[in-house]
Amino acid sequence: MEQVLSTVHCLSSEIQNSKILLPTAINLVNSLKDELIKYRSEEQFQIIYEKAKICALKNNIPIERDDERNNRLRQKYKPSKQFEDYFVMSTLGQSKITQSKNSTKKIKTDVLYDVIDR
Length: 118
Known about the structure:
The protein is mainly alpha-helical. Helix content is about 65%, strand content about 0%. The longest helix has 18 residues, at about 20-40. The two termini are about 10 Å apart. The relative contact order is 0.10.
């Protein structure tokens, strides 16, 4: 994440310069967009994810495997008594249990892409 922030900070500092010309500013913005697109690649995500796992292990933070997390989060669904006489066609908020099946993909979309896109 430091890479993303430092890249954006460099552009921000250069654009704030009063002597910058418009074509130079446009080139800097275009190069930043290209760099951010590279950060969205699978290879870059794997590099960042491996660094995060190493950091977690150094700080004694346990890393759950995907199947362990799914078993722990799986609960029996018991509908509320309010819905006994109704036909329910939605998940009633139970979607987080099924969405957690691939946590690395979830990290990629919920964390990395949010940082890059904002």
